[in-house]
UniProtKB/TrEMBL annotation, chains A, B:
Protein name as annotated: Glutathione S-transferase
Every GST C-terminal domain range: 87-233
Source organism, top-level taxon: Bacteria
CDD domains, alphabetized: GST_C_Sigma_like (cd03192), GST_N_Sigma_like (cd03039)
Stored PROSITE patterns: GST_CTER, GST_NTER
InterPro entries in alphabetical order: Glutathione-S-Trfase_C-like, Glutathione-S-Trfase_C_sf, Glutathione_S-Trfase_N, GST_C, GST_superfamily, Thioredoxin-like_sf
UniProt xrefs under PANTHER family: GLUTATHIONE S-TRANSFERASE
GO molecular function, one term: glutathione transferase activity
Domain GST N-terminal: 1-85
GO biological process, one term: glutathione metabolic process
């Protein structure tokens, strides 16, 4: 089956967590909105007045199913592509971790948009500075410390043991993103999370991930995505 | 099986979405942190250095499983208690809706804490006013309009048809919460979402929900939960 991924064509954003899983799995997929007519198709599906359309991109068309919400897409893909265990208990526990990553990603976004998405960064720069300071001081250590603790307790190199899961791929992306957005702060902070940094290196050299990162399918970080670099926020 | 629910004992918060499902189902559960020694037990479980502890309350102990993240708990409970369909496709679609409610709830929280959770409301009141104005103008119509559209397209009175699901219970709670936090604005806005308001009334009179709401198990809204009423934010 060829999957159809629908996501904004010029950013990594939330879609990147899905792209990484599809790429690592070597799955057959098309990144629809980057092809001809794809944006129009995506908009039509979002605006549908029939049934239950997705609320927002990313969403994945898999046969007749249309699956929205990043963590939900990964929950579906995981056991089908060797990126999640198959038992219900283990699948739910992995999903729980992905939902915590989802919460963290929303907080990352709000560092540059603490007042609202309909306003420009420049119009909320004062609040963004304060929120970023709080985020770096309180939230990054809380979230990343949690995953570091889990990696330390794991009996393998990955969060649930010896096999990489979609959560490991997502944690790779979290480290990538934080390094891009807050290079000064991350440089200092990385010594606190050695196991997460090791995990990042291990994911980066997985053959399919490496090939993906070197390809033009990987969109560069930029000032429209979730992770954005503003010097004023990286104090 | 008797479930053990772990959540803060003095607020509705995120735990309330789980309480509503357990109550509607007539499930056998204990709200642990409201009983003797419960807070200490909750803290111990969160601080565990073994395996994969929950990141935050609420979490549910079901036999040997410990399930964290509100939407994940509901995903588990739903089909076991007649509050979700059983097919994988339908379960994922319902879960997708719950994850969109989860996103909305995080935005509700940030109306009074746009800068950070470690600061008092009073120390971020200016930003809270701006964020709340944006939230009421842009986000509430976007999210609630989405659910209104789905209810209009449904061939029954509930989001997925003729049977109530945990998503319907959660939407009841969203209307309750918004009415408490933003009474002035909601009064005007409710005429835009007649089907959601009908749904709210329909859930409120379900026998188990009605009995729950009338009991002292239902904690009153207050200024520590997700939904908080501050006059300055309800312009």
């Amino acid at each position: 089956m060829r999957y159809e991924l629908y996501y904004w064509p010029t950013i990594q954003g939330r879609g990147e967590f899905v792209r990484l899983a599809l790429e690592d799995a070597g799955a057959d997929y098309r990144d629809m909105a980057r092809g001809k007519g794809g944006m129009a198709a995506m908009t039509r599906m979002l605006d549908s007045k029939k049934g239950i359309p997705p609320f927002a991109p990313p969403f994945l068309k898999a046969g007749t199913m249309v699956i929205g919400q990043t963590a939900n897409i990964l929950f579906y893909l995981g056991p089908r592509h060797g990126l999640a265990p198959k038992s219900e208990a283990a699948r739910l526990q992995l999903h729980e971790l992905q939902l915590t990553i989802t919460d963290f990603v929303a907080e990352v976004h709000d560092t540059h948009h603490p007042i609202g998405v309909s306003l420009y960064y420049e119009d909320q720069k004062g609040a963004a500075k304060k929120r970023s300071a709080e985020f770096l001081k309180e939230r990054v250590p809380k979230y990343l410390g949690y995953f570091e603790r889990i990696l330390k307790a794991s009996d393998g190199a990955y969060v649930t043991g010896r096999k990489a899961t979609y959560v490991d791929l997502s944690l790779f992306q979290i480290v990538e993103g934080l390094r891009y957005a807050f290079p000064k702060r991350m440089k200092k902070f990385e010594r606190e999370i050695p196991d997460l940094i090791d995990l990042h290196e291990r994911v980066a050299v997985r053959p399919n991930i490496k090939a993906y990162l070197d390809s033009d399918r990987r969109i560069a970080f930029n000032k429209d995505g979730i992770f954005r670099h503003y010097k004023a926020l990286d104090k």
